[in-house]
């Protein structure tokens, strides 16, 4: 499995350096992708015809995002994977990270948003966020900071978090009505 992970990582990261414009796009996506997605979610708070349902989905996305990153913090204490650039697998295009490689927080954060939208019946937005998440995930491998398996692990953490939130945070409950009625 490690061999496949290294092969995929090298294949994607090996594209780096072929085009200065594409390198710049991937660096920008890697740096700003998560904040842009969070902003896109936050701005939806005041939009939509079915405001209660829309806000429920937004709260679920936020909870999924937070739960996914919390789960990652547990995982990093159990798995101490060296970054691919430190193992000689990838060439780094951005600054070095101070933490371990597995799982990718960027993948968790972006996939969490997409998964929450999809699981709560907002298919069109979920697919749009899913495409953005794929781009961010790809960029993290492209810039050399993650193995492909790190990104997959982060995505799986996000899906688990989304499933838990969908099960535990039910639309129409008293708590949901209070939270979605704010502003």
From TrEMBL:
Keyword field contains Transmembrane: yes
Residue runs in coiled coils: none
Keyword tags: Membrane, Transmembrane, Transmembrane helix
Lineage: superkingdom: Bacteria
Domain Phosphatidic acid phosphatase type 2/haloperoxidase: 57-166
SMART domains assigned to the protein according to its UniProt record, in alphabetical order: acidPPc (SM00014)
SUPFAM superfamilies linked to this entry: Acid phosphatase/Vanadium-dependent haloperoxidase
Key word Magnesium present: no
InterPro entries xref list: PAP2/HPO, PAP2/HPO_sf
Pfam families xref list: PAP2
TM stretches of this protein: 25-46, 58-80, 100-119, 126-145, 151-169
PANTHER family, alphabetized: SPHINGOSINE-1-PHOSPHATE PHOSPHOHYDROLASE, UNDECAPRENYL-DIPHOSPHATASE BCRC
Protein name listed in UniProt: Phosphatase PAP2 family protein
Organism name: Amaricoccus solimangrovi
